[in-house]
């Protein structure tokens, strides 16, 4: 696979850990990105590479992230693998299609995935990897020692922001989703009750990366 040329792979039935082979010098800032709804259009359990459509402003956003010395880490729940909507091989093909839109210098440093079902109905190990669990972020933090106060998480669901908050990531960014309209109120209520600050955007905007 094309993906194998650039990434080292650790795969279990519960998780996938893809790490860029050309490891950069240590960088203290991590940019954690949800995939569906942030990087590619969310079509609800995507089942084909042909359905991959890159969200607006993704490329300039990633370019600016590199200029500002961020490492890029995708963290994504992909229960479609456990639901047998797609195979793991097909998941990798979808990932490859997304990467095909990027220049090599914008390839994420890590692509981390959870294949757990909600409430771990498929009884897989490492359930803390499924957002809002902190397993994926903690794995990256352990490997790369990012400064949490200078790192960001960007997502289109409450589970993304909870994951970042529970992991100690200081900067929370919510991207409004037309597919998940109820998330906006849920996030607003959660932030008010817990006195948590977040930034709300209609689309990706690199000006938020300070």
Q: How would you describe this structure to a colleague?
A:
By secondary structure, the chain is an alpha/beta fold. Helix content is 29%, strand content 20%. The chain has one domain (2-208): HAD superfamily/HAD-like (Rossmann fold), CATH 3.40.50.1000. It is built from six helices and eight strands. The model has no long low-confidence stretch (mean pLDDT 95).
Features:
210 residues; Rossmann fold; eight-stranded mixed beta sheet; 6 helices
**Average pLDDT over all residues:** 95
> How many strands?
8
Residue share in helix? 25-40%
Low-confidence stretches: none
CATH structural class: Alpha Beta
Kindly give the count of domains. Answer: 1
Shape: globular
Task: Give the helix tally.
Answer: 6
Give me the CATH architecture, please: 3-Layer(aba) Sandwich
